[in-house]
Amino acid sequence: MSRALTRFGALVAAVVLLFTSWSVTTAERASAAEPFTGYLMAHFTGEHANGEQLYLAHSRDGLRWTDLNNGAPVLLSTVGTRGVRDPALVRSPAGDRYWIIATDLRIASGTSWSDAANNGSRSLVVWESADLVNWSAPRLLNVAGGIPGAGNAWAPEAIHDPTSGDYVVYWATNATLNGVKKHRIYYVRTRDFRTVGSPVLYIDRGTGQGIIDTQIVESPDGVGGYRYFRASADGHITVEGSNSVLGSWTTIGNLSHMGISNGATGGNVVEGPMWMKFNGRSEWALWLDQYATGRGYMPITSANLGSTRNFATRTDYSLGGTRKRHGSILNLTAAEEGRVLARWGATAPVNRIQSYTHQDRYVRHSDFDVRIDPNVSPVQDSQFRVVPGLAGSGTLSFQSVNYPGHYLRHYGFDFVLAADDGTATFRGDATFRQVAGLASASWASFQSYNHPDRYIRHYSYQLRLDPITDAVGRADATFRVTS
Predict the structure, then answer these.
(1) What is the pTM of this model?
(2) For residue 483, what pLDDT band results from cuts at 50, 70 and 90?
(3) Is pLDDT above 90 for 149?
(4) Does the pLDDT value for residue 1 go beyond 50?
(5) Which of 66, 381, 441, 461 has its CA 20 to 30 A from that of 44?
(6) 3-state SS, one letter per residue, for the chain
């Protein structure tokens, strides 16, 4: 009798465990299968002070984009070269884990393209998140170290492989193989973006033709005759199809008939092909970075990827205020979209900072120095967004309108306009507390966060951070934030 009860109890426990496991798995799948309502683009902006960092943009229709975080970087790399390019957004099948992987490269630091290609980083920069808004510290993932003579690891992407249950991470490495040195596409497998298998050659175009910037999109409904499509920059923009990530691939064609190439045939020379599936319908956009002319991304669209002749150019698009360089697009559920917009979607108004003692003068930057001037031209040099302070709570920082990601900061108690470098020192130097005006309570003064005995003031029209000890100083340290 007791044995029967024990067996019955074990059976009940097993059923409960099975039901619980089924419920959890189903809930995760349901979460991942929620209808998509928007789009998130990760990108960098170019080879300038803070251009090689992680930026985000949002769209509701997949064609018109709005910069998030007021056009400033969302994440800064503090590892490797301290710069990132070519970011890729990756979501787990259950929708409960996200990763950003990116090229570890910062040309703005003075690195030459030759050095970067032949003696560059063989690691990728990785961020990880459980909710798409709270991200881990960046870490390096060595993917190309096992390739003999590897010179770099560029333009990474990753896709979940349902046949194995892990992720295929693929990228371009410049190395010598069979006596020929060029870029080829390699891959590794991973389950956690922390440990990887040995690198394997994935795509080699043969002869002397290199290949870079490969990106895969899935078409689970089979439109176009294949489950997966990939576009690569290999002299052309070549499109291929396959029914498995690591299976055989069939060449579908290129875009030469549209006057688009990767340099082999002239015309509109592009790179960084970036796929996007439109929400709710079988239609895709292939975004192409017009790097040769500096015009940024353009989309071509198709409802059937089985032939490159089905692509059509689009003109009904806009890309926001920042230049978008090689990145990736993630379709967002309503829950994901809500979290992203709550965190980075609010746009701070454009303001000017008016002097109390010289009310025809406004704080402005000129060659990254900061002073007060009348008749500022262009007026954007005197326009700032008052955003939550980079350090502390109840504080504020002044972000430039025409140099997003650049802030007013004191340096040696002088003021400059500088790019956020991610350090605690910078963030303290660029953070202030607004208090009642020292000369008039209806105006405002700005107390330093890390030197609370000092305030922003002008002296001979130059902006400084000084202790205030007399009436002249109190007047010079009084301002008004105007719209």
Answers:
(1) 0.84
(2) confident
(3) yes
(4) no
(5) 381
(6) CHHHHHHHHHHHHHHHHHHHHHHHHHHHHHHHCCCEEEEEEEEECCCCCCCCCEEEEEECCCCEEEECHHHCCCECCCCCCCCEEEEEEEECCCCCCEEEEEEECCHHHCCCHHHHHHHCCCEEEEEEECCCCCECCCEEEECCCCCCCCCCCEEEEEEEECCCCEEEEEEEEEEEECCEEEEEEEEEEECCCCCCCCCEEEECCCCCCCCEEEEEEECCCCCCCCCEEEEEECCCEEEEEECCCCCCCEEEECCHHHCEECCCCCCEECEEEEEEECCCCCCEEEEEEECCCCCEEEEEEECCCCCHHHCEECCCCECCCCCCEEEEEEEEEHHHHHHHHHHHCCCCCEEEEEECCCCCCEEEEECCEEEEECCCCCHHHHCEEEEECCCCCCCEEEEECCCCCEEEEEECCEEEEEECCCCHHHHHHCCEEEEECCCCCCCEEEEECCCCCCEEEEECCEEEEECCCCHHHHHHCCEEEEC
